[in-house]
């Protein structure tokens, strides 16, 4: 029995199983709900189980079912089985729905509901003790034929894979042993899906087998050395789900089935039989591989012979092709030699014609050169006469130009003299103007100083007069003597002193 691992949000009831592998045990919380169906009087009318489940989900809010499915359906009732994440809320859920009624659309009758906690099918201690006590083909003195082996079904493959395995497509017996050594010392473990010969093994007694990398779940057998360890493991797995926490902190749960082994799977006799059968299968596999290898070698040898034959044929074909190509090249070379010889003859004739033409051209050039020399001689005599006349005219022209240049220099000197005279007069006028301006500036400064002194004198006289008016008669007479008429200095005499 296996189901897809489901996400779990409530881990409060989880019990550690094997922390290095992040495995826990979580109690199974199941609820049975029976709904009494009304009598269907109208033909063709039916009751929707989906509508009933929605009504039940509404009745248990704010809690919810992780899974709600139909367990049994009959004419007069429908039994639903619901899973919850927490076992402690089962009584609360039972109280919410047990004895209640619900109304479906299209039906006037109220549907009665009965609910209770579901009983989990799991073998008790009495069951395995009675089974091994009454079984005549069992010998409780031998391992595997007594209550010491746990048969597990529906274990998730990835949860029991090696932690450093990238693919995690197959479980590890070593991890499985470490996990279940939590309850006691393990004598032997067996994972049928890890045996590639188990499908062909006729002594596997109907055990389900698996192929590599295709199944998400696997079955396993765990055999303990001590009976108490077996009891402890069975007691711990009773009504439990397997829980796994990943590296992100998310938790997943999966339902597993645990039972005691009734098939003597890990008895020494069956283990020896499987080993012998495996050895036989391995021998057969080895022989088959050798036969296949020989067939492959024979096939490869034939292929090699065919290949060598093809290579030889190809080499012969290439040789013939090369011979044909060589003959073709020889014929082509002969044709090219003939064409080359013909070209040489044509070239020789052309060169002879070119030489004759060149000689004729050279003779014509010599005749033309002689005529040019005679013409040059006559022209030289003519040019010398023209040169004499031209030289005489140039000398006369130069004399006229010298006389004109001399006259221009005389006029230029006269003009420079006049300009110099004008510049001298302008300098004198400018100097007079500068002196006049300086004299005017001095006169203004003297007048300003004179006026300033006069004002200072007036101020002193007024101050003295004020003091005398406030003083005695003697002071008045003194003021009268001192106050003489003020004579202005002559401006011309000041300027002369300056």
Radius of gyration: 69 Å
Described by the principal axes of the CA atoms, the overall outline is flat
Specify the helix fraction band: 40-55%
The H/E string reads EEEEHEEHEEHEHEEHEEEHHH
Oligomer kind = single chain
Provide a count of the helices: 8
Placed side by side, the strands forming the largest sheet appear as 1-13-12-3-2
User: Which structural class fits the helix and strand makeup?
Assistant: alpha+beta
Explain this structure.
Helix 6 (268-470) packs across helix 7. Mean pLDDT is 84; it is low at 202-213, 481-489 and 491-498. With 498 residues, the chain is of the alpha+beta class. A hairpin with a 5-residue loop joins strand 12 (240-245) and strand 13 (251-255). Helix content is 54%, strand content 16%. The strands form three sheets. Strands 1-13-12-3-2 form a five-stranded antiparallel sheet, with helices on one face. Strands 5-6-4-8-7 form a five-stranded antiparallel sheet. A four-stranded antiparallel sheet has the order 10-11-9-14, with helices on one face.
Strand and helix map with partners:
Elements: E1 6-8, E2 15-18, E3 23-27, E4 29-36, H1 49-59, E5 67-73, E6 77-84, H2 90-97, E7 101-103, E8 110-117, H3 125-134, E9 149-156, H4 173-180, E10 186-190, E11 217-224, H5 227-237, E12 240-245, E13 251-255, E14 257-260, H6 268-470, H7 473-482, H8 491-497
Antiparallel strand pairs: 1-13, 2-3, 3-12, 4-6, 4-8, 5-6, 7-8, 9-11, 9-14, 10-11, 12-13
């Amino acid at each position: 029995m296996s189901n897809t691992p489901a996400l779990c949000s409530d881990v409060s009831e989880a019990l550690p199983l094997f922390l290095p592998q992040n495995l826990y045990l979580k109690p199974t919380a199941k609820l049975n709900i029976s709904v009494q169906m009304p009598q269907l009087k109208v033909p063709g009318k039916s009751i929707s189980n989906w509508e009933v489940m929605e009504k039940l989900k509404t009745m248990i809010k704010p809690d919810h079912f992780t899974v709600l499915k139909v367990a049994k359906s009959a004419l007069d009732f429908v039994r639903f089985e619901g899973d919850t994440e927490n076992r402690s809320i089962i009584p609360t859920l039972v109280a919410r729905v047990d004895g209640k009624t619900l109304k479906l659309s299209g039906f006037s009758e109220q549907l009665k509901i009965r609910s209770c906690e579901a009983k989990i099918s799991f073998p008790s201690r009495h069951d395995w003790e009675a089974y091994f006590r009454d079984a005549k083909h069992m010998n409780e003195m031998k391992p595997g034929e007594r209550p010491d082996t746990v048969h597990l079904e529906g274990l998730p493959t990835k949860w029991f894979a090696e932690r450093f395995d990238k693919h995690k497509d197959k479980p590890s017996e070593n991890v499985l042993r470490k996990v279940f050594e939590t309850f006691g010392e393990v004598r032997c473990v067996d994972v049928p899906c890890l045996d590639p010969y188990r499908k062909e093994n006729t002594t596997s007694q109907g055990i389900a087998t698996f192929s590599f990398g295709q199944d998400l779940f696997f079955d396993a057998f765990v055999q303990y050395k001590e009976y108490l360890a077996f009891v402890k493991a069975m007691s711990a797995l009773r009504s439990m789900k397997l829980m796994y926490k990943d590296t992100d902190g998310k938790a997943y749960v999966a339902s597993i089935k645990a039972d005691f082994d009734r098939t003597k799977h890990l008895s020494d006799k069956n283990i020896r039989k499987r080993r012998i059968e495996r050895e036989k299968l391995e021998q057969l596999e080895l022989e088959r591989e050798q036969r296949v290898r020989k067939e492959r070698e024979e096939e490869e040898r034939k292929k090699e012979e065919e290949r060598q034959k093809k290579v030889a044929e190809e080499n012969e074909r290439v040789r013939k092709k090369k011979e044909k190509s060589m003959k073709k090249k020889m014929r082509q070379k002969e044709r090219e030699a003939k064409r080359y010889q013909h070209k040489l003859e044509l070239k020789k004739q052309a060169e002879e014609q070119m030489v004759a033409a060149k000689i004729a051209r050279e003779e014509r050039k010599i005749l033309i050169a002689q005529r040019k020399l005679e013409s040059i001689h006559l022209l030289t005599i003519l040019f010398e006469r023209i040169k004499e006349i031209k030289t005489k005219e140039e000398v006369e022209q130069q004399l006229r130009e010298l006389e004109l240049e001399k006259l221009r220099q005389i006029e230029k000197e006269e003009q420079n003299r006049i300009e110099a005279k004008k510049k001298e007069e302008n300098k004198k006028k400018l100097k007079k103007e500068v002196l006049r301006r300086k004299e005017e500036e001095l006169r203004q400064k003297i007048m300003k100083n004179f006026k300033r002194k006069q004002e200072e004198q007036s101020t002193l006289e007024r101050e003295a007069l004020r003091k005398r008016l406030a003083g005695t008669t003697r002071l008045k007479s003194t003021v009268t003597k001192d106050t003489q008429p003020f004579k202005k200095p002559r401006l011309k005499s000041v300027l002369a002193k300056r």
